[in-house]
Amino acid sequence: MRFPARSDGRGRRCVPARAQGDIAPEDQVRKEASRSQNDIAGAAGGLRALARRELQEFAAHPPAVPDEGEWSRRVTLLVKTFERPRCASRVVCSIRRHFPRVEVLVCDDSREPLFEDGAQPLPGVTWLTLDFDRGHTLGAGRNYLVDRTPTPFFFLLDDDHVVTAGTRLADMLDFLEGHGYDIVGGAQGREEYGAAVFEQDGDGVRQVFHRHHGEVAPGVVRCDRVSNTFMARTEAVQRVRWEERVYANEHADFFLRASRAGLLIAQMGGTWVDHDRRCEQAAGLWGRLLGDLLPHKDGHYRFLRLGGDGQTRAAARRARELYRRYVLEKNGVRDIVDVDRARDRRALLRLIGPPDPARR
Q1: Considering the entire predicted model, what is its pTM?
Q2: For residue 122, what is the DSSP state?
Q3: Burial class of 256 by CB neighbour count within 10 A (0 to 12, 13 to 18, 19+)
Q4: Exposure pattern of 65-83 as b/e (b: 16+ CB <10 Å)?
Q5: Most buried among 150, 237, 308, 314, using CB within 10 Å?
Q6: Is residue 11 part of a domain?
Q7: Model confidence over 241-279: pLDDT tens digits?
């Protein structure tokens, strides 16, 4: 079994694409967390204190932002966070800089959550916590959030996202309501989109990025998959749900099942969030030290991997076994291979424009 591998589109396999970190299953999480706890407790505590102070200062001096309007009562913004308190603080503040009234739910399953369950560090921002020892996959946290969404639509964010003036939530909602689609994606960053289609390849599946099924509205194409920043109908996603038993590649699994279930998925041009994976870095000498102690390792569980010994490798093997069992076998495929061609990317950008129109 392999994690999704990159292909150049001519049948040649490249180095397998890494998942979002080698994420340890629950039987390894407690063991590694206990081992590394004494080494990072002080640094992590400092980042939590800094994140709380940032939110307190923001609450004391909120920016003057016009009300979004009536549409904001039909959308809830959802954020899943784990062991990245400054990321969580940053994304929440970025939301409020542009959308002062829309409801926000944050699911925090860190060892020590930034706030207690039900707390509201800012008006309309509710912190929800999950027990760390129950296991903390992205799928479990996202399902927990969607199940508690009170509105017919939600907008999904990761904790290392930053909402910008180019995050066009009202336009995304207008498209979903006007065209009957279930999911419409934006972009992570200013450069390219996460749109892809799934193609059967023998007993495997190819995930072909920047391909689509045609334009359905000006600047919008139909596809099978979008990035981790999208707006969706709450009821439709509750039918599909994320797989809670895997620690990697839950995204491809979710969209493969969603597309097979008949959900209508689209990629919208000209809407984006910033994607900054160094969000734990603080300003100043002490901040740089904290950033060095807690570097981002392209995974939500990087602090458990500071030791980086055989336990981590064993955990990675276990994660791959869970992926084989609950993603590949469940979907009846041998492998899911990523295909990314430059010509497809250029064609998509010509059709719907870049995520940030200022970069034309």
Answers
A1: 0.83
A2: B
A3: buried
A4: eeebeeebeebbbbbbbbb
A5: 237
A6: no
A7: 999 988 778 999 999 999 999 999 999 999 999 998 777
